[in-house]
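Hi everyone, sorry if this is the wrong subforum. Our group has a chain we'd like a structural model of before ordering constructs, and none of us has done structure prediction before. Sequence below.
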Amino acid sequence: MTKALIPSIRRHGVALMATALVFAGAVMTAQSAEAPQFSTDISVDEMMEAIVMPTADAIWKAVSVDLTDKGEVKTAPATDEAWLALRHQAVTLASVTNLLMIPSLKVNKDPASKKHGDGELSPAEMTKLHKSQMAAFAAHAQALHTSAMRAIAAIDKRDADALSDVGGEMDGICEGCHTQFWYPNQGK
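Answer:
Right subforum, don't worry. Here is the predicted structure as tokens:
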């Protein structure tokens, strides 16, 4: 190779490298501009009613201990199919916790509604509290996610006692969130 050719190759290599970097930057910018946006047309209260409550309820009801005149009678899933159906409930619960943390999510289906129960915040008050304390709300959702993952682990091990313990933990997490964001004035 001649000495005159080497600077030309270097110039072309640098130009080629610069072109590649500009192209890569343009692709990355286009990809981030095309990132999907979350649809927020389903509210927190709708998710609670349609997904969180039924799935948590399935976990809570999966294991029970009744005291009878014959002693303790334990109830737990008895077949692989029953354990799998319960696992699906726990996976659904774990998944919805991520949706609950979408910052732009509406809290109520009808935020202007004046309807609310005794001791409950109005939809407008809930919305205001949710927006001002989103980090605390997200912490409750993350705690519920962790608990749902523990339920999945207990289900995978077919450990009814551990599942019962997780059910109690989940109940405490739900109640903590509700007393902060739904009915903080109840009993006052």
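For your construct planning: Residues 44-181 form a domain with the Four Helix Bundle (Hemerythrin (Met), subunit A) fold (CATH 1.20.120). Strands lie at 64-68, 71-75.
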